[in-house]
Amino acid sequence: MTAQPDQDLLRVEALEAVYGGGVRALSGVDLSVRAGEILALAGSNGAGKTTLLRAVSNLLPATGGRITAGRVVYAGRDVARTRTDVLVRLGLVGVLEGRHCFRSLSIAENLLAGGLGRGSRPAELRADLDRVYALFPRLAQKRALPAGLVSGGEQQMAAIGRALMGRPRLLVLDEPSMGLAPRITEEIYRILVGLNRSEGLTLLVAEQNVALALRHAHRCVVLETGRSVLEGPADVLRARDDIRAVYLGLGPSCAAVDRVVVPA
Ligand code: ATP
User: Fold this and answer.
1) 196 Cα: distance to centroid of ligand 1 (angstroms)
2) pTM, whole model, 2 decimals?
3) SS3 of 178, please?
């Protein structure tokens, strides 16, 4: 079941999803995340990024949504049939919308909570905590403060640090840049890209900011109104004039594209 480099760690196949009374949020989305890569999921407000990440983490039912067709496969398992705590133990760990720190708990307690989920022993917890502090020195400085009193950037770092305490193979992040100053966003991406390079950590990152996504990811999938309309290697997409015009605002705007898969 262990994925080899370049094998798909996650596959989303012809996925359709709706909420409650029938709001269709995803229509026939296909994508794969290869072991060891950073895949960015880009798209504007309401494109379906969060819905896709919820489906990937089997959290759709908890938010009033459901899969109506297709499936998500992680490390050979059908995600919709696998409990979220089992997914976490298998290394699929999410940092979903809104940072979700326990505001009255200290930064250290927030981080430790991430290790408890996978049943780590005390010595492992200590080692993992030291590793997170080495990655995020700001968290080490503020370890004793309640999470509710630190800055938005530090809360985002704490949420990512907590996920890292779960020793992920695939880290799923929903708009880590949301509401943060560019300098803090860059600091966070530098650390994530560093983990990808040094440890081969696989990342699936939703980003509204396509330029940011294309700068840091290996590949990018763009969603529009619940459909995947564009997919390709980030460096190739970055160099294309039409992509720069439509998604980066660098040149004349043109009509929305049909689904385009750009080869490497
Ligand atoms: P954003 O960047 O604003 O978070 P997004 O790309 O993540 O956008 P989603 O949040 O997945 O998009 O939303 C896709 C569609 O599903 C939208 O029409 C949204 O209104 C709807 N939606 C999302 N969550 C729910 C929910 N819990 N109940 C009903 N509809 C929802």
Assistant:
1) 28
2) 0.90
3) coil
